[in-house]
Amino acid sequence: MIQVAVCGSNGKMGKEVVRAVQNDSELELAAQIDICDGQFSSIEEASKECKIDVLVDFTQPSSIYQNALYCLNNGINIVIGTTGLSDEQISSLKELSEKNKVSCFIAPNFSTGAVLMMMFAKQAAKYFDNAEIIELHHNQKKDAPSGTAVKTALMMSEVNPDFASGNCPETETIKGSRGGTSYSNIHIHSVRMPGYIASQEVLFGSSGQTFKIRHDSMNRECYMPGVLMAVKHVMKQPEFVYGLENIMEG
Fold first, then answer.
1. The pTM is what?
2. What is the reported pLDDT for 38?
3. Is the sign of the CA dihedral 240, 241, 247, 250 positive or negative?
């Protein structure tokens, strides 16, 4: 049995992960970690009391990097679902994972449908020179743009260097109205509003046509197959993985 600890276990995503682990015959819930009424208040405390093979972290952007450093320096494989890590932090975790031979799996989105949306967007990016991303989340999401939007833009940029081809010089009469400019000049627009969980549209345009790819998450259960897939993957061999698509393709 794979011994799994859940960090952020009292959060909305954390509670779903706890249920998913408890319902999987290959996994055993080793510890529930949360600063608010958790079984343990820290990873360090839990690791002293329990055997932990894999830690699943759905906490806050402000704490995830330090949590990952602790795990990678103490032989605990980690699956990260919290977004907000910088490119520099991701690069640092990759180096530490490879150096210490401890698995680190980071996924901006664990929904298989959202991952397919990103993969399809990368494919479409080969055929369009103009594209923008609109991501819509609930108004309790602290980071913007979403990790999914950033990852999508990164994947698209791998096959096309510029998605603002032919755009005229722009002047924003209201600052930020054109969104943020990311990889390969892809504009990302972030919406935060009650009623949404997680949605994203990738818009493509060329002369005489537009093309739109959209994914909507209706509840948090949709992330669980991807989370469990990642938990089982990190036990196979020590490696760094960024993005669920890397193991879906295999």
1. 0.79
2. 72
3. negative
Q: Check 122, 137, 151, 187 and give the catalytic one.
A: 137
Omega before 169 cis (within 30°)? no
Interatomic CA distance for residues 7 and 179, integer angstroms = 33
Which residues have CB under 8 Å from 136's CB, separation 6+?
191, 192, 193, 196, 198, 199, 200
Strand 130-137 relative to strand 198-206, pairing? antiparallel
What span, in angstroms and rounded, lies between the C-alpha atoms of 169 and 186? 15
Q: How many CA atoms lie within 13 A of 116 on its CB side?
A: 8
141 a catalytic residue: yes
Catalytic residue (one of 15, 94, 141, 232): 141
CB atoms inside a 10 Å sphere around CB 162: 13
Q: What is the pLDDT of residues 168-183, one digit of tens each?
A: 998 999 999 999 999 9
Kindly list the structural domains of the chain, giving each domain's residue range(s) and its CATH number in brackets, ordered by start.
2-106+220-248 (3.40.50.720), 112-217 (3.30.360.10)
pLDDT band at 138 (very low <50, low <70, confident <90, very high): very high
| Residue 222 DSSP class | G
Can you tell me whether residue 101 is helix, strand or coil?
coil
Residue for token pair 């919406």? 191
Q: What is the pLDDT of residue 35?
A: 86
Preceding omega of 225 cis (within 30 degrees of 0)? no
17-26, 88-97, 166-175: range with lowest mean pLDDT: 166-175
The answer to whether the CB of 78 falls within 8 A of the CB of 7 is no
